[in-house]
Specification:
With 375 residues, the protein is an alpha+beta fold. Among the domains are: 130 residues, no CATH class; 67 residues; 61 residues, no CATH class. 49% of the residues lie in helices and 13% in strands. The chain has eleven helices and eight strands. Strand 2 and strand 3 form a beta hairpin. The radius of gyration is 24 Å and the shape is globular. The protein starts with a helix and ends in an 8-residue tail after the last strand. The relative contact order is 0.10.
């Protein structure tokens, strides 16, 4: 999932009551919820290094222990050498509590990352297989609304005094999120309306909460409701994806395709519609799934045949960039085009065929007439 979702998850857990476990609890949970994404540093390894390395080692079982240990050391070092030197009278951070919170926050990260179609290698370094939840779009505004709204309102109820800087920061975040939701054309109109109503509701609740001097217990209840909504929503989406996959497999078997892989890819901000991508022995099959329509499964008339693998595609696949891209690719496709003085081989993934730029858009390899790599 996106960094904002991970951050709000850590903050919501803190507001729900874990902030009372130890000083620096909130910082620990937020940092831990984002810690596995330290593998973003793989980008310094060159082109396509991130898709080959990310969501692997730092998201596996060893990292779920080592990252909390490292984060605990950093938090306790900050507490001792900076925080308590500046304020000698503050309560020291509790080491075991910091470690348990770091463990909890880190564990939420791979669980959320598993939810989408991008994939995660949950058992690295012991096994290299990718696992896919196919339940949530990688950016889910309903989680933003539930978790962000709960964190914001809980913060308002916990504050002794109103802080303008905090209100400006939250208003800016809400504005940017709203512009994103409203500006994406594939987000359905109904979802945009619900989003605007949700933001309006939060503003109204903020006005009412501002009249309360301080209500820490109510703040924790609101945060727990936000976390509870997130858990229920995610659970329903996982169950819906599993149900849709079973129905799609039955439909494909009845049509004579005999599917191997089946991906149910959620649409942005629309929990009632998904796109379908599946593999048969000779082709990719695409379609859509609509919970509120009949028939729910709609397959495209023309499957996408597996492109023939030949000397040109094999030469392209052996380049460093292509090997890295294929490490991550789930539905690879090779497109060969004859150009002046040679060939152009494009290696793409059907999941992201609409992507025009960046590593997810695929690899382009130029070959000469003899099939040798030019660039």
């Amino acid at each position: 999932m996106d960094p904002l979702t991970h951050t709000l998850t850590g903050a919501a857990l803190s507001r729900a009551g874990y902030h009372r476990a130890t000083p620096l609890a909130t910082a620990t949970l937020i940092l831990a919820a984002n810690a596995p994404d330290i593998d973003i540093l793989a980008g310094f390894g060159g082109a396509y290094a991130t898709v080959a390395f990310r969501r692997g080692w730092t998201h596996g079982p060893l990292a779920l222990l080592l990252l909390p240990l490292a984060l605990t050391g950093l938090v306790l070092a900050y507490d001792r050498w900076i925080r308590r030197r500046r304020h000698p009278d503050v309560t020291p951070a509790n080491g075991p509590a910091v470690f348990l919170l770091a463990l909890l926050g880190t564990a939420t990260h791979p669980l959320l990352d598993w939810m989408n179609t991008y994939g995660i290698r949950l058992l690295m370094p012991f096994r290299k297989e990718w696992y896919y939840g196919d339940a949530l779009f990688i950016v889910d505004p309903w989680l933003w609304l539930a978790l962000g709204g709960a964190v914001y309102l809980a913060g308002v109820l916990r504050r002794r005094t109103r802080t303008r800087l905090g209100d400006v920061a939250w208003a800016t975040l809400a504005l940017l999120a709203t512009l994103l939701v409203l500006g994406v054309t594939i987000v359905p109109t109904a979802a945009k309306v619900i989003w605007v109503l949700g933001i309006t509701g939060l503003v109204a609740l903020r006005i009412l909460a501002g009249r309360v001097t301080r209500a820490p217990h109510a703040a924790e209840r609101i945060a727990r409701w936000g976390v509870g909504f997130g858990v229920v929503y995610i659970t329903l989406m996982v169950l819906a994806s599993a149900t849709a996959e079973r129905e799609v497999r039955r439909e494909l078997n009845a049509s004579g395709f005999g599917p191997d892989q089946v991906m149910i890819a959620p649409e942005p901000a629309n929990p009632f519609q998904s796109s379908i991508l599946a593999t048969s022995p000779a082709a990719y099959i695409r379609g859509s799934y609509h919970w509120l329509q009949r028939p729910r499964v709609r397959l495209e008339d023309e499957p996408v045949p597996f492109p023939p693998r030949n000397a040109l595609t094999e030469a392209a696949a052996q380049t460093t960039d292509a090997r890295r891209f294929l490490t991550w690719s789930r539905f690879p496709i090779f497109l060969v085009q004859e150009v002046e003085d040679g060939y152009l081989v494009q290696i793409r993934d059907l999941r992201f065929m609409g992507t025009r730029e960046g590593e997810l858009s695929g690899v382009r390899v130029r070959l000469d007439r003899e099939g040798r790599v030019v660039r």
